[in-house]
Structures are given as structure tokens and as C-alpha cells.
């Protein structure tokens, strides 16, 4: 039987093309989009001009669908919560899904992180984290400290506060530079085994020069994602912790992409503890939009001493019960399945399948970290060609800039992992 969405496929695509923006697209020169009619396990069901395709999702819907799609445990949690209460305002009210999720997050993150803000997207959580850092300084009698030290190569989201701490050289937000809060940018940290001391010297100098105006430091720990998929040496995080302590800065780790097992640790923050931790993406197993900001009692108390006495943020969909219930079910499943073993298995398969591409014509570098594989080309990717080549191998990828990369669902099986590697290789060859 024809899927009802597929039956309307041509009409849907016509209206989409004329009226619907996709991430980073133009209304007058739209990029091609494909119709998804469903998803199950690690496969997306696509309708390609009436032809039904089932392809492996090598992107986990941008880091989020770690358990794949139509996961019975998550479907059940969602249906159960929908039967009780889909949403309620969080101002003056609370509910079990939010409290239970907060309790779980406090228990699985490092001990000093005790207070939880449930935001509605990754970008909003970064905005909240920045506000927390600024309010902390105000609460400590240093209102002039309003800037963030951040890293070249970083990406933290698309809203204005987030854009201000993204690497401006990446160009994603360069049109807005003039209206963004000026921040302090340190060099991109060295790859594992690189010159950490040399890098640290530069960051120490910057922090010392700008101490009087710095409120905090914000970084994606271990792996910088949308700013270039750069893997860096964990020792840099120790250096940042030392600098933050020395200068009274609030250290923010944005683990929206790296959190919940992706790089091989449940959180990179288990190695070096930040003052603020942002989570998102995989938090609900990719089912619903939800993010969390965790922080310490020290930060929470300083915020209470700022002029307002309260943390100045409160979105309509804060702590959405459906999202919280699914997040709890997703965390249960993560523990029950043994995420460490899954991530190790994915990692070995990506290493085995992608490492041989190192040194191939057009390939500048191959990087594998946890359940992330990156083929860095020495030229910009022809995205349409690369995507088509991967689809011919039965795999969905979304290359950008000079990168072809994959972060498959943790549950992806051996054959599908091999298929992903073949697809990435085919894409790299034509790109
Ligand atoms: N921070 C990091 C490290 C991200 O990778 C992203 C999204 O790609 C964000 C923040 C923004 O999250 P969202 O797209 O949910 O607003």
C-alpha cells in the first residue's frame, strides 16, 4: 500500500519548495529536499519521485536519534504522558516528569552540578548559560564582566547570544558581526597529542589581558562540531579549568552534541567538571526538542545575589512534560542497552571503514572519535553529488563545507556500519 504522504509526494514538494524554509536555505533558489514518509530502526523511509527508498540514517538526525526511530520504549513513554498531560506552564507549577528528569540528570552528571534549567532547545540553553555567567559576576559584585572567552572553530547555536560566541571566521553568522556582543577568541585547540603548552600560553595571556571584562569561558569539550568537526586534546580542558579558577571565570561546557555517550564518555564533563553544562539533542533520543542547563550551588547562589535576585529566563515550553517523560525513558534505555559497548562497537567499525581513506586523493584528514567519523577533504564538498552518491549506497548523509561525516545511532548494526563507511567513501570520491 502506498504511504498516504508518498501519495501526496509531488504536491508536498511543490508547496515545500515555494513556501517552506529549511536550515540555511533560500526561497528563491531552494536546495533540493527529499520527502521522508517514515522512519524505523536506523532507517529513514524516503519517497523519491514515487520510488520508496529505505536508507540508513548516518546522521542520527543531527546527533539526536541515538536509539534510532520508532523505539518502543520511547513511543510508550510519549503515549503514556500524552494521556496524562501534554503541556502545562512551568511558572508556579511543577510536575513529576520534570522533577524526575532533573533528579536523574543531577545523579548522572558530576556531583557539583546540582541545579537544572530545562530549556526548549540547544540554542536557548546556551543563552541561559551565558546569562547565568553574567548574573554570577553581577552577584559577585563584578557587573563589568560581560564577555565570554571562546574558541576559534566553535559553534554554539544560531540565536544572537549563541552567534556571538561562535567562530566568526566560519562565516555562518558573519553578516551579523556588527550587532553581536564582542567576545574574546582564543586559538583553536590542538589535536590530541599536539602542542597543548603552546596553546595554553596564548589562552593564559588572553585571559590575563581581559580579566576585568571576562565573565566566563564557553567551549564544546573534546569535539567542536558544526564549526569544523575538530577533535582536540582533553588536556586543553584542564588548562581551561585552571584559567577559570585563577581569574574567577564561569566555565561553561556545551555538550549539546558531545553529551550522552557520543565521544565515548557519558559526558566529557566527567573528566573535567565545568560550572555550567549544557545538554540537548540526544537528551530525548531525538524525539522532542528539549535541552538542560546544569550548574553548581555556587553559581546558583551568586545568581540569587544579582540585582534581580532571580535567573532572568522562562520560556513558554520550559520543562515540557512530553519531552521530559521521553528524556527519562531515553536515559533508561541508554543505561539498559549498555551505551559504552555500543559506542565502542560503532567506533571500531568507523575506524576500520574510514581509516583506509586517509591519504586518498582529495582527503586531507580522517578523524574518528567515539561514534563520530569525519572525512576532511582538501576542497569544498559538492554537497548534492556527495549526498546522491551516499544515497546510491543506501545511506543518508549531510556533508558541509569540506566535510563528509557520520554520527550513526548507537544501535546501528555491523552491516549497516559497513554500508555507512562505503557510502562515505563513495561520497568522498565524487565530492
Ligand atoms: N551547541 C552545539 C555544540 C551544537 O552542536 C548545537 C546544534 O547543532 C547547538 C548548540 C544549538 O542547538 P539547537 O540547534 O538545538 O538550538
What attributes does this structure have?
431 residues, 2 domains, seven-stranded mixed beta sheet, EC 2.6.1.62, 39% helix, Aspartate Aminotransferase, domain 1, cytoplasm, pyridoxal phosphate binding, alpha/beta, adenosylmethionine-8-amino-7-oxononanoate transaminase activity, four-stranded mixed beta sheet, binds pyridoxal-5'-phosphate, globular, Adenosylmethionine-8-amino-7-oxononanoate aminotransferase
CATH topology of the largest domain: Aspartate Aminotransferase, domain 2
Total count of strands: 16
CATH superfamily of the largest domain: Type I PLP-dependent aspartate aminotransferase-like (Major domain)
Biggest sheet layout: 7 strands, mixed
Quickly count the domains.
Answer: 2
What is Rg? 22 Å
Q: Which class best fits the helix and strand makeup? A: alpha/beta
Site (Participates in the substrate recognition with KAPA and in a stacking interaction with the adenine ring of SAM): 24
GO molecular function: adenosylmethionine-8-amino-7-oxononanoate transaminase activity; pyridoxal phosphate binding
Subcellular location: Cytoplasm
Pathway: Cofactor biosynthesis; biotin biosynthesis; 7,8-diaminononanoate from 8-amino-7-oxononanoate (SAM route): step 1/1
Structural account:
With 431 residues, this protein is of the alpha/beta class. It folds into two domains: 4-63 and 338-430, Aspartate Aminotransferase, domain 1, CATH 3.90.1150; 73-336, Type I PLP-dependent aspartate aminotransferase-like (Major domain) (Aspartate Aminotransferase, domain 2). The protein is 39% helix and 18% strand. The chain has helices at residues 4-7, 9-19, 60-63, 72-84, 96-108, 122-139, 160-165, 196-210, 235-247, 297-305, 321-337, 339-354, 383-392, 414-430; strands at 35-40, 43-48, 51-57, 113-119, 147-151, 184-186, 214-219, 223-224, 230-231, 250-254, 276-279, 291-296, 363-369, 372-377, 395-396, 403-406. A seven-stranded mixed sheet has the order 4-12-11-10-7-5-6, sandwiched between helices. Helix 7 links the parallel strand 5 (147-151) and strand 6 (184-186). Helix 5 (96-108) runs parallel beside helix 11 (321-337), helix 8 (196-210) runs parallel beside helix 9 (235-247) and helix 12 (339-354) runs parallel beside helix 14. The longest helix has 18 residues, at 122-139. The chain binds pyridoxal-5'-phosphate.
Amino acid at each position: 500500500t502506498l504511504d498516504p504522504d508518498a501519495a501526496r509526494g509531488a504536491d508536498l514538494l511543490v508547496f515545500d519548495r515555494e513556501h517552506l524554509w529549511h536550515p540555511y536555505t533560500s526561497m528563491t533558489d531552494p536546495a533540493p529536499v527529499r520527502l521522508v514518509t517514515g522512519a524505523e530502526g536506523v532507517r529513514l523511509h524516503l519517497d523519491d519521485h514515487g520510488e520508496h527508498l529505505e536508507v540508513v540514517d548516518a546522521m542520527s538526525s543531527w546527533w539526536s536519534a541515538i536509539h534510532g526511530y520508532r523505539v518502543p520504549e520511547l513511543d510508550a513513554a510519549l503515549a503514556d504522558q500524552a494521556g496524562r498531560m501534554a503541556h502545562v506552564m512551568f511558572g508556579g507549577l511543577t510536575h513529576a516528569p520534570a522533577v524526575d528528569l532533573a533528579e536523574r540528570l543531577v545523579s548522572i552528571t558530576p556531583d557539583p552540578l546540582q541545579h537544572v534549567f530545562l530549556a526548549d532547545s540547544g540554542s536557548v540553553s546556551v543563552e541561559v548559560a551565558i546569562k547565568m555567567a553574567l548574573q554570577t559576576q553581577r552577584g559577585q559584585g563584578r557587573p563589568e564582566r560581560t564577555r565570554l572567552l571562546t574558541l576559534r572553530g566553535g559553534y554554539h547555536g544560531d540565536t544572537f547570544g549563541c552567534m556571538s560566541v561562535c567562530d566568526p571566521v566560519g562565516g555562518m553568522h558573519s553578516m551579523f558581526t556588527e550587532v553581536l556582543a564582542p567576545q574574546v577568541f582564543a586559538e583553536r585547540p590542538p589535536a590530541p597529542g599536539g602542542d597543548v603548552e603552546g596553546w595554553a600560553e596564548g589562552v593564559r595571556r588572553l585571559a590575563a589581558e581581559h580579566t576585568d571584562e571576562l565573565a566566563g569561558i564557553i567551549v564544546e569539550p573534546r569535539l567542536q562540531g558544526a564549526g569544523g568537526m575538530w577533535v582536540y586534546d582533553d588536556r586543553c580542558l584542564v588548562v581551561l579549568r585552571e584559567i577559570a579558577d585563577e581569574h574567577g571565570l564561569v566555565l561553561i561546557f556545551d555538550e549539546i552534541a558531545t553529551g550522552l555517550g557520543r565521544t565515548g564518555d557519558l559526558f566529557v564533563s566527567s573528566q573535567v567538571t565545568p560550572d555550567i553544562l549544557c545538554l540537548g539533542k540526544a537528551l530525548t533520543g531525538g524525539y522532542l526538542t528539549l535541552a538542560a542547563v546544569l550548574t553548581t550551588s555556587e553559581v546558583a547562589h551568586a545568581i540569587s545575589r544579582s540585582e534581580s535576585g532571580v535567573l532572568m529566563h522562562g520560556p513558554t515550553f520550559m520543562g515540557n512534560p512530553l519531552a521530559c517523560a521521553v528524556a527519562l525513558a531515553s536515559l533508561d534505555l541508554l543505561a539498559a542497552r549498555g551505551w559504552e559497548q555500543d559506542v565502542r562497537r560503532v567506533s571500531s567499525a568507523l575506524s576500520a571503514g574510514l581509516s583506509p581513506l586517509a591519504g586518498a586523493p582529495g582527503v586531507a584528514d580522517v578523524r574518528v572519535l567515539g561514534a563520530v567519523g569525519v572525512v576532511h577533504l582538501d576542497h569544498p564538498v559538492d554537497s548534492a553529488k556527495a549526498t546522491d552518491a551516499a544515497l546510491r549506497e543506501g545511506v543518508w548523509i549531510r556533508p558541509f563545507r569540506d566535510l563528509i561525516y557520520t554520527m550513526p545511532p548507537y544501535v546501528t548494526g555491523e552491516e549497516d556500519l559497513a554500508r555507512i563507511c562505503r557510502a562515505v567513501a563513495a561520497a568522498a570520491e565524487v565530492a
